[in-house]
Write a structure and sequence with these properties.
Blueprint (H helix, E strand, L loop, with lengths): L1 E6 L6 H15 L2 E6 L1 E4 L2 E4 L3 E3 L5 E4 L16 H8 L14
Parallel strand pairs: 1-2
Antiparallel strand pairs: 2-5, 3-4, 5-6
Amino acid sequence: TTVLLPAAWPERRLSHWQVLTRARAIENQVVLVGAAAVGTQGRVRLAGRSVVLDPWGEVLAEAGGDGEEVLHVDVDPDVVARVRADFPVLDDRRRDLPRT
C-alpha cells in the first residue's frame, strides 16, 4: 500500500512536516510519498522537501527545498506485506465501533 500526500507546507514548519510524514508512514504501515510544493504561496515561503518513506518511517529519498526536483526510488512491492506480517499493529484497531 502506498499513500500519496500532496502538501504546501510552510518553511517555518518544516520540522513538523518531517515528523508528521514519518508518523503517518509508521502508524499506517505504508510507503508514504509526501509531495511538497516549493516556492511561495502568497507571502509564505514553502518548505519543499518531498519525501518517500518506508513503513518503518525510514527515508528512502528526499528532495531539497530550493527548487523543483524529481525523486527516483525503487520500492520493494512486498515491503508493506512483510512489515505488517512481522509487526501486525493494524490488527489492534477496533472494528466493532459504530459508524457515525
